[in-house]
Every structure is written in structure tokens, then in C-alpha cells.
Specification:
By secondary structure, the chain is mostly helical. The protein is built from 3 helices and 2 strands. Helix content is 57%, strand content 7%.
Length: 72
């Protein structure tokens, strides 16, 4: 069963997660651009914001752990 986030555009949770983790979408505007979600009635905005709140810190943490500095 798909976890539909945006009923107007039929965008599921997996699509939102891919936009966040693969395209570094960190705002509602970027989610709209990459997925089409939240371009209809707008009822899904709170759900998308809660997904962003939970997933974006994971992306930031992943980027921090992947940084490696070379000192010559």
C-alpha cells in the first residue's frame, strides 16, 4: 500500500523522501518543484512539513559525516 501524501497529485511518501535524500530538497518550494506535491488544494502542506522536519536533519547529519578534511 502506498502512503499518499498529496491526494491532488497522487504523490506518495517515497517520492517525497527521494526528493529530500536524492535531490536535497529541503523546503516546501523544492518539494513542489521536484514532485508536484502541494500544487493543488494545499491540504497536504502540514504532512509535507512534518516529513521535512523528520528527514532534513538526517540529510544534514549524513553530509556532515561524509565531509573529510585533508590537512595537506
Amino acid at each position: 500500500m502506498r502512503d499518499i501524501v498529496c491526494n491532488c497529485q497522487m504523490v506518495d511518501r517515497n517520492t517525497i523522501n527521494k526528493a529530500i535524500h536524492e535531490k536535497n530538497a529541503t523546503s516546501i518550494e523544492e518539494i513542489r518543484r521536484y514532485t508536484g506535491a502541494n500544487t493543488g488544494c494545499g491540504k497536504c502542506m502540514p504532512y509535507i512539513n512534518s516529513i521535512l522536519d523528520s528527514e532534513v536533519p538526517k540529510v544534514v547529519q549524513k553530509e556532515k559525516s561524509q565531509r573529510k578534511f585533508k590537512l595537506w
